[in-house]
Amino acid sequence: MKKRTAKEVYTLSDLQVWRRSKSDAEPPIRLGLLGDPVAHSLSPQMQNAALRDCGIDMQYARLHIRPNELAEALDLIGELEFAGVNLTVPHKIAAVDFVDEIDEEAKQIGAVNTVVVGEGKLIGSNTDGVGFARAIRTEFSVDLRDLRVMLLGAGGAARAIAMQCAQVNCERLVVVNRDVDKAKHLVAELHPRFAGPRVLGPVARIEAVPLDERALRFQIGNVDLVVNATSLGLDPNDPPVLSATLLAPHLMVYDTVYRVGRTPLVQAAAEAGARAANGLSMLLYQGARSFEIWFKREAPLDVMRAAL
Ligand code: NDP
Description:
Elements: E1 10-11, H1 12-16, H2 18-21, E2 29-35, H3 43-53, E3 59-64, H4 70-79, E4 84-87, E5 101-102, H5 104-109, E6 114-118, E7 121-125, H6 128-140, E8 148-152, H7 156-168, E9 172-177, H8 180-190, E10 206-210, H9 213-220, E11 225-228, E12 252-255, H10 264-272, E13 275-278, H11 280-295, H12 301-307
Parallel strand pairs: 1-3, 2-3, 2-4, 5-7, 8-9, 8-11, 9-10, 11-12, 12-13
Antiparallel strand pairs: 4-6, 6-7
This protein binds NADPH dihydro-nicotinamide-adenine-dinucleotide phosphate.
NADPH dihydro-nicotinamide-adenine-dinucleotide phosphate binds next to α6, α7 and α11.
């Protein structure tokens, strides 16, 4: 069969004329990632390798969709012959309002990263939390539930990670955000789930903290795992969200930002003597779970890992 690769990036205008142009790809594009930006994403190479390995005659593409275009883009995804899509920055929270149904996990998280299309209906799920927990187990050989966690960020990815921490009842959770009110809001939501007696030392089991050096310096001594779930680091020229002088050798540092090579935070962690990993493992495990939701079959993990 003649194979034509998809364009690097599609836009809303392409979706608007999709049926007429039938796009120009073979196998046909029936899956994709909606984001802004989206060009950096490694999801297409990982998902396309899985599709090929399983003999599924579909292609996964990047769609650059701006925030004000999301509602129309998702409407079109429902009308066209898509099997599903993933959502990334900055659409995960907004997408909750634009799907027809949402599963329990995505509802609790308040964010959608996976949409499956069934009979024209869009059903939203979230695979970031389970992907994250599996990544921590693989990278550091520890269970999330045994850790005191400092989570930087309060957006879609951070909410999924915070809910996962609550679900496994981790030892402690400190939520840090530039807009501290968002961190406080998330902590207020989760507070009842951290009400148990598992307190270690003179610190609260769950609290919100501003992105401020003095507050962070105190907290660093009372956590085991630092997680960056902000978008800082997506641009290689970004400064690390925490500097090496704030980090310490006892820490495990997980940066959800991924790239081949070191992210600014992973570099800072290495300078501080801490163990660190970037978000490739979370990308792999959340993507594998999305694949399982779309096709109701096991994802070919080794093939997906190799593609990354
Ligand atoms: P959102 O847009 O929902 O949230 C962005 C977060 O980043 C907010 O907390 C925001 O803070 C913070 N932020 C943005 N710019 C800055 C800055 N200059 N300084 C400090 N904080 C900042 O994005 P998502 O939650 O969807 O994604 C966040 C990150 O998670 C991205 O880097 C993404 O690549 C990564 N991710 C990785 C995955 C993986 O599989 N590895 C899966 C999902 C996400 P504020 O509220 O103050 O604006």
